Amino acid sequence: MSSAARRAIIVLFAALAVAVVSSASGASSSADIGVNILFVKSPGADPSVLPNGASFTVTGLAFQAGMSVANDVGPDPATVHVRFELPPGLHWGSDLPDPAENCTSTATSGDCTPPELPPHSNERNLAAAWAWDIVADAPGSYLLKASVVSATTPDPDTSNNAASVTLIVEPKVPHVTTGAALVSPAKPRAGSTVVARVRVTADGSAVQASNAACAATVGARRASTKVRTALGVVICSVHTFRSARGKTLRGTISFSVQGTRLTRRFRARLR
Q: What residues contact 109, with CB distance under 8 A and at least 6 apart?
């Protein structure tokens, strides 16, 4: 989401699924304030309204969420003070509630006072909404809450003055990539040591492999091998036989990365 879009979004969400309740008869003035939890499914996407009591899952420790508030029925306008609460284990990212959004923030909450909400603001693109960067300390389950702290106009129905959803944070599964096993020298001689290397990355960065193993044969004979790992590479050294001229060296390199077991094969004709 762009920095402009992350600012206090004073927009109407025509899709806000909020119950419409008539204000109490006989009141000199009344409003019907409804608050909801919002979640941004992907960077740049519009926030989605989450039903009260629902649960949703995010992959990775960083995401965007927030709240919206509207004067669902009215019949009178209202200025409100609303609060978004972060439970232990969650903290603000780089974009957090600030005065430019009509908000203030603490380590555990964001308090906002948007411009006056006219009646039926949930139907007229006048609802107030915010989405902020949030980071989890670890995977787990967290309860997000939003509530109306106060309003300048009495609200006879307080059933929609608070909302909560359960956030489930799952660890991001790294995208592991490996290259083919490259043999050097390219034209090995019988009796020499042949080295096979496999490059290993996760999400584009070099990573350390573990539990590496290497096996090789020259013709029908098992060859002596040594395997080692360094950051971003697994290396297998094979000692070939002097009598193996014209024979084919075949081998496998196996290793684990981020819980995934991988195997790469190599071969070379000995001169």
A: 83, 84, 85, 86
